[in-house]
Amino acid sequence: MLILAPSILAADFKNLGQQVTDTANAGARYIHLDVMDGAFVPSISFGMPVIASLRSCTDRIFDVHMMVEEPGRYVSDIKAAGADLICVHAEACRHLDRTVNQIKEAGLKAGVALNPATPLSVLDCILPELDMVLIMTVNPGFGGQKFIPYTLEKVRNLRSMIKQRGLDIDIQVDGGVTCDNVRDLIEAGANVFVAGSAVFKGDAAANTRKFLDIFEEY
Ligand code: DX5
Ligand code: ZN
User: Fold this and answer.
1) Distance between CA atoms of residues 77 and 25, nearest Å
2) Largest Cα–Cα distance of the chain, in whole Å?
3) Whose CA is nearest to atom 10 of ligand 1?
């Protein structure tokens, strides 16, 4: 199934609840929540109180992208705030297996994110444990950046690695995803699409529907 995960980073924060409700009602299945600590990435975004207060807006899947050093420290707090899925960066975890297991033991879905320049080989051992792999298609830290073209090949290679090993794992892409490049990403094997600017700049409901119309072609 092809899933849209609007990233609220690009939303109008003074109308955040309404913006989330608009995209959810238009058919977005996930809400992508970007937590940034100013250490793993240069910027600081938002944390548990914002996630917790949005929880009452929608029952869509809360997909929390932790751009945080040693995210294992926050698994129980993020769960309490209402996360359904937690994605951690391989580059940010000294003990990736422990952190992934912490997420799963908390009863949540677990994902691992890779920066553009991180090779797929870091997933070799952990892959069967995962529900999702997030291939960053920009360098994490900011919305509104340009898609890095070489990441398309990475998605293709990951999809064949998953297939070869007989696994069933979602591939999420995040950064610079638009209605113009989403078909290439679908064809490369991605199935969960984060979009910040492409959803929230303008009419969030109409932009959501544009993506869903493209998904209908597949
Ligand atoms: C970037 C974040 C993204 C960001 C995407 O570090 O992880 O989720 O909000 O924004 P766009 O879609 O505008 O590139
Ligand atoms: Zn993200």
Assistant:
1) 27
2) 46
3) 143
Residue among 183, 192, 172, 190 nearest 218 (CA): 183
Q: If you search the block for the tokens 């892959």, which residue do you land on?
A: 127
Side-chain half-sphere CA neighbours of 129 within 13 A: 18
Q: Quick: pLDDT tens for 139-160.
A: 999 999 999 999 999 999 999 9
> Is there a catalytic annotation at residue 124?
no
Give the tens place of pLDDT for each residue, 45-85: 999 999 999 999 999 999 999 999 999 999 999 999 999 99
| Active-site residue (options: 22, 34, 37, 170) | 34
203 marked as binding residue: no
In the DSSP assignment, the letter for residue 73 is G
Whether 77 is catalytic: no
199: DSSP letter = H
Domain range annotation of the chain: 3-216
Judge if pTM exceeds 0.95: yes
Interface predicted TM-score (ipTM): 0.99
Please identify, in words, the CATH class of the domain defined by 3-216. alpha beta
